[in-house]
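Margin note from the TA: students keep mixing up input and output lines. Inputs are the sequences; the output is the structure of the whole complex. Example:
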Amino acid sequence: MAKKNPNIQQQINDEYDQLVQQMKPKPPYLRNIIAAFLVGGFICLIGQFVNNFYTGYLKLSVKEAAGPTSATMIFLGAFLTGLGVYDEIGKFAGAGSIVPITGFANSIVSPAMEFKREGYVLGVGGKMFTVAGPVLVYATITSIVIGLISWLLKS
Amino acid sequence: MSGTKKVGKQTVKFTHQPKIISTASIVGPKEGEGPLGRYFDKVLTDNIYGEKSWEKAESKIFKETIELAIQKAGLTEDKIDFLLCGDLLNQTIASNFAVRDFPIPFLGLYGACSTMVEAMVLAAMLVDGGFADYVVAGASSHHDTAERQYRYPTEQGVQRPLTAQWTVTGAGVVTIATEGTGPNITYATIGQVIDLGQKDADNMGSAMAPAATDTIFQHFKDTNHSPDDYDLIITGDLGKLGKKLTQEMLKQKGLDLTGKLEDCGVLIYSDKQDVHSGGSGCGCAATVFSGYLYNQLTNKKYKRIMLVATGALLSPTSSQQGESIPSIAHAIVVENN
Amino acid sequence: MRQYIYAFVVGGIICVIAQVLMDTTKLKPAHILVLFVTLGGVLSALGVYQPLVNIAGAGATIPIPGFGHAMVSGVLEEIEKSGIVGVFSGGLKATAIGLSAAVLFGYIMALLFNPKG
């Protein structure tokens, strides 16, 4: 049998992809948007309560309260992941529970827990930052690049 | 080709008609709750099955399914000539670890989710060719071992797209023999690897549909059969979308399978079970054949069926490197005489 | 009360943007998180993010762009105090509590619980 001609193959692939796109079920956009909005908003609402607790009762300044607030939210996200609840929330809410910092905590705890069976060093320690690692890398790089630019502009 | 057993380009005809004398299937709780639940030999109450890891659980399920298939055939391990198994895990550890306690010569296989039929075809060839009297063939998958290897940690909160499928937890095993009672294996069509450039690992049905289409079409061409000669043509794990695509493409090629084409992945779960496009994994075709289809054959509900197990031959590495998904489909014809 | 409403609405909208991106493009959650954290940092540098924080409070700080904002504003503040050194110390200093919490709680939860599948 003759080898496939790459040009004809590309055309067949494109035609097939059109058929796939046409038959593929569309995501329920509206439902997903509403779920993301409600859950994402609700998590931030809880964050605001926590923040106001630190500023109101413990008399911290808004700036001082930022750290404890995110730490508390991270604890909540981590704990719900441990209990096996956060993945259920995620199934319902999509980005609504991925984007808040609780989702960041979920992305740390879930691989750490998952790979415990591969040991505490290479499993828990090694896999903990499989998703959160890239976030830290890009956040750090962004802040350093912006910092350098701003420093250069000043001097 | 000098042999008389090959028909056309990709099909073999078994002249001694190897028999499937027993089957066994063990599945997880979700599969047990599905519409086919009562056809499986054993339904587990959880996916970990008293083990320390999901991989260990999968091997244990597989091992017990093999033991059960041998036992149901009225045989003992020393009577079995060869053992042919495969699964989805890296280096097929589920199979390799499951069979280490059996004193039976073993061949490990990998055909992704097409492994069950790959194993059955090779087993039938060994028997038909006079190399063996009894061959045990099986395949297994496990939702959680597959999920952590191919996708996300199981507790990560992600939304699965509607085209995504749910890996079946379960193992299916058959005993194929020269003599005995049971339906015959009459034909097998071995698929070629087909790749139409689909890349979405959350949409494997679309990647595999062209392979299923090609193998089914080739089967009819090689054998000169018509769809009316079959009571059922059932694919392995195309899911809802893949099944629709296959039906459409075969129609375009002039083969109308309306009402004849089914898919194990569509049958194994109900719509209420939140699995989106349907079941997948080696265990899907393996358990549905060993449980439901074998039962329907022995109860004479079907006279002749074709099982077309489909496999998406990707790895997490190939996906991350932006490769498309090559796919394969193997068909086997099982009939009552 | 108004503060809570703004937190809810702004936080919700940020998540909706991510959801639409996930549903209409091939981006996976990890890509979205990286994109958003970077975007948060850039918006912070452009002076857009802090006003949003002033209005929405947790609605802007709890979503992941808030993390990028915290790092960038930390760097910019530290440059004021200690010059070039601040470029390298400010970001992690500003987010130290969150990061320590993430590592600590992540580790503890992994010790305490097993995945349910």
